[in-house]
Amino acid sequence: MDKHHAPGFLRVVDAAKAQISESTVEALRARQVAGTPPRVLDVREESEFARDRIVGAEHLGKGILERDVEARVPDLATELVLYCGGGFRSALAAESLQRMGYTRVSSLAGGIRAWREAGYPLEA
Question: Once rounded to an integer, what is the mean pLDDT over residues 91-108?
Answer without folding.
Answer: 98
